Amino acid sequence: MMEKPKISGIPEKIRELEEEIARTKYNKRTQSHFAVLKAQIAQLKEKQMSRSRGKGRHEGYTVKKSGDATVIIVGYPSVGKSTLLNDLTKQHSATAAYEFTTLTCIPGMLEHKNARIQILDVPGIIEGAASGKGRGREVLSVAMNADLVLFLLDVFHPEQYTKLMKEVRDFNLRINEQPPDVRIKRKPKGGLGFGTTVKLTRIDPEAVKALLREFRISNADVLIRTDINADQLIDAVEGNKRYVRGLVVVNKIDLASPEQLERVKKEIPVDVFVSASEKRGIAELKDALFGRLEFIRVFCKKRGAKADLDVPLILHTGATLQDMCDKLHRDFAKRFRYARVWGSSKFPGQEIRKLSFPLREGDIVELVLD
Asked: Same structural domain for residues 247 and 365?
């Protein structure tokens, strides 16, 4: 009988494990086996990425962040990224009807509802970008530092959505996800202690322990506070994921029939339809960016004067007085005595002495400093 050829090389090993997952029926009895296979794949992909990093001479474009947030436009070549940048920012990025027009990272500034949003146009990516094909690692490394990834798709190629999502996921980006609330405290001995504050419906305790052992975590206290699956547990163990907001935009609607638009709506989760060449949908896209970035506007007030309601300070949802001080001046938090807040406080002009006080949209704040 002929021997089965040995699998050599990381891509081949990954493919073999993925095929095993595909042909194995998932049920309660096989949960632990699935968890182990996924852990093995994750470790192989991390090794593959490390090797790819080691081979590259240059990773990432040098971009100085500015404004209240940074958005990167990610898409395949020729989907209209440069034209969209021009529509949003009045930046004159080179455009042409052939692939790979953009060869570097081109920044522009969108000013909308008093917010200044930096928009980055980067070269189009292709399949295999996460592993280094077509300068993909340079592009995705910029996305790692962005506040939002705008996925731009061709209306006639909705399949690009799944491919792009795979590339960013393989590059350790998590789009529109929350980090899993998992605490893993290693200890010298005593085995695995396991606890949870929620009912786990997608992975059982034995599968959790099997996965952790695959990562050579045999002695630790584990506390899980959200209903996670195996992939989220792997993310928590590896601890190298970046959680970024995302927006899905479909371009070239001027060329598509109503039937084609309906098909796209059914196939992928579209946030905004646009025609960059005809500037259709641009106003809706600006509003969508502002909303997805979760901006709030806070108004500053000087003692004895009226609040300046024409120029708000732009912060993100969940921002505190500490964040406000840090944005205004690096020394303000050190000099902070108290603040008076109109809007979200219990009564108008309430005196607040904690920098951890949360601010809300439309608040008026008077800072009192030493």
From this structure: no
Residue 87 is part of which domain span?
69-175+241-292
Whether 43 is covered by a domain: the verdict is: no
Q: What is the pLDDT of residues 351-365, one digit of tens each?
A: 999 999 999 999 999
For the chain, what is the domain count?
2
248 and 319 both lie in a single domain: no
> Is 137 found in the same domain as 94?
yes
Asked whether residue 338 is assigned to any structural domain, the reply reads yes
pLDDT 10s digits, 205-239? 999 999 999 999 999 999 999 999 999 999 999 99
Return left, alpha or beta for 168; rule: phi > 0 is left, psi -120 to 50 is alpha, else beta.
alpha
